[in-house]
Amino acid sequence: MEWALTPLSAGYLQWLETFINDWFFVFALAFLVFEFVRYAIYKKLSWTLLGDTLTNYITLGFFIGLTILFLGAFYVVSFYYAFQFAVFDIEINWLTVLICIILADLAYYWEHRFMHRVNMAWATHTVHHSSPFFNISVAYRFGPMDSFWPVFFHLPLVLLGFNPIVVLFAEVIVQVYQTILHTESIKKLPRPIEWIMNTPSHHRVHHGSNPKYLDKNYGGILIIWDRMFGTFEEEQEQVVYGLVKPIESVNPFVAFFHGFYRVGRDVLRMPGIKNKIGVLFGPPGWKPKVDPPSTHPAE
Amino acid sequence: MPTNTQRFFGVLASIGITIGGAWLASTLHSQATHSALTSFPNGLSADFKNIRNSIGNIVVLVFSERNAYQAYDATKAVAYREVAAKAGELNVSFPDLKKGPYAIVAFHDEDKNQDLNMNGEWPTEGYATSGAIDAFDIPTFAKASVTQETTTIIMHYAD
Q1: Cβ contact, residue pair B22, A87, below 8 Å
Q2: Could you report how far apart the first and last alpha carbons of chain B are, in Å?
Q3: Residue A216: closest CA among chain B residues belongs to which residue?
Q4: Which of A48-57, A124-133, A285-294, B49-58 has the lowest mean pLDDT?
Q5: Is the Cβ of B132 closer than 8 Å to some Cβ of chain A?
Q6: What are the φ and ψ backbone dihedral angles of A131, each rounded to 5 degrees?
Q7: Of A50, A142, A259, B35, most Cβ neighbours within 10 A?
């Protein structure tokens, strides 16, 4: 066990993070080729599929651009600012990194649930769910503010004493694990794995617009969080991918901005300041409670 | 749809798991924290290892102060020495340096220009810092502070 407690440098972890992220991207491209062969065998190839796949990578480009220009700096500054006030002194070694990954996975669960249940965050996350397909390229389909909301959910880890670089590393591990779940080619894994871990089957449910699959399976690496917190659903009926109200477009601009357009429109149309706030902070489809009909007879 | 009770206990349990996990992580140390053992009656001495050739000099700087170390300010170093390089191992000693803390920084000045040559962000000559765990490590002054009379320092080459 000595290796698990050997100190690691933050610089090494940063190098490893970039290494994993970059090589995984290459692997994902190769996997996409395999998925297209599979689509061809099942005679599911179409221009819409091709356009949608390209759009996934274009939104990734937009997302990276925005992150480099604005959100990345916000991330780094808030993490390093918070790190000064760290509660615990946590050494960097494989054991503490492992703990950080598990805690980051829990933070991811809540961040993800928040992004689904609060409209102003759903405005960005809806982009990821707007593809009617489910393959590894969809994992790279990002919205404009997808690197903004996670900051708040992972900041507590920095405040508790995990080095910002360790937290970022843990976030990348969760993200990379999530990426590989975006496939229809893996049906179900052995029971114990399906019980503890998030799997392609569980994540297909998460991407379903079937009423019983809505707002389910938010987990990153572990599915036990969903089982614990009452948001788990097993894959049974055929999954219908995409949004309840589909965008019906492969235009990357439509895909990237439709969430903000929809939420903005709903806020504008909603009468009354209180109700406007309700739309912003409420879940998708939020409506004000209608007053019960008056019991007095009409005059 | 989770009930409000489930939501409440879910959040509560998550906070508990997070704080407990961080506390557990804080107890997992490789060794007791560096106690400041900084007295060297016979002077400070460094064994450099992994020197790739005998070309040029090994330039060694010793800092006794955090800010000077962080800024790599050679004018504020308490000792500066250039020693002819020797492939493999080389000992450099400072008999006058008896009271630390001391952090040692060195580089393999192959072209004798008294500067660490860089190609963008990558050093093209060997570099070394006391207390560094690996080639990527930039230890804080506390971690770089030498705790033994003779300390072993690995020379790293990035190219």
Answers
A1: yes
A2: 57
A3: B1
A4: A285-294
A5: yes
A6: -80, 135
A7: A259
Residue A45 burial by Cβ neighbours in a 10 Å radius (0-12, 13-18, 19+):
middle
| Cβ-based contacts under 8 A for chains A and B | 86
Arithmetic mean of pLDDT, B60-75: 89
Residue of B26, B130, B138 to mutate, testing the A interface (most A Cβ within 10 Å of its Cβ): B26
Asked if A60 is an interface residue toward chain B (Cβ–Cβ < 8 A), one would say no
Res A296: pLDDT? 58
Using a CB-CB cut-off of 8 Å, the residues of chain A touching B138 are 9, 11
How many residues comprise chain B?
Answer: 159
**Which chain A residues are within 8 Å of B136, Cβ to Cβ?**
9, 11-12, 14-15
Q: How far apart are CA A76 and CA A64, in angstroms?
A: 15
Tell me whether A98 touches chain B (CB under 8 Å).
no
Say whether A11 and B136 touch across the interface (CB within 8 A): yes
pTM of the model: 0.78
DSSP classification of residue A137: G
Average pLDDT of the segment spanning A213-235: 96
Q: CA quadruple A116, A120, A123, A124: dihedral positive or negative? A: negative
Q: Is A88 on the interface with B (CB under 8 A)?
A: yes
B19 interface with A at CB cutoff 8 Å: yes
Strands B44-51 and B127-129: unpaired
Q: Which two tokens stand for residue A55?
A: 């759009």
B119: left (phi over 0), alpha (psi -120 to 50) or beta: beta
With contacts defined as CB-CB under 8 Å, which chain B residues touch A6? 30
Average pLDDT over residues B143-151: 83
Residue A15 has pLDDT above 50, yes or no: yes
Cα-to-chain-centroid distance, residue A133: 16
pLDDT for B39 equals 78
Q: Taking all residues of chain A, what is their mean pLDDT, rounded to a whole number?
A: 93
DSSP-derived secondary structure letter, A70: I
Q: Is the ipTM of this complex over 0.85?
A: yes
With a cut of 70, say whether residue A54 has pLDDT above it: yes
Tell me if chain B has a CB within 8 Å of the CB of A100.
yes
Name the pLDDT band for A161 (thresholds 50, 70, 90): very high
